[in-house]
């Protein structure tokens, strides 16, 4: 694929235009993919443990509760954006003990 302009030939290369977009998988973006994987893993592990101790129905209930709580936390955090940080509200006074 060349483009001729006068006596010069320029080679065209395909450009990947998705470099500035965050990684996304099934609606989860960026770091929340890891959170979703940890939620699913924790839900399965808790299901296995409760199933062995209390039975199948109790295990299903724990699995459903774990997945629902994890999904809700992920969606609420993701709604704020990928770069959420703790927001400290209040008045902060920084006292200087040493003067130059």
From TrEMBL:
The chain crosses the membrane at residues 32-50, 56-76. Keywords: Membrane, Transmembrane, Transmembrane helix. It comes from the Bacteria. InterPro entries: DUF4133. The keyword Transmembrane helix applies. This is DUF4133 domain-containing protein. It comes from Bacteroides gallinaceum.
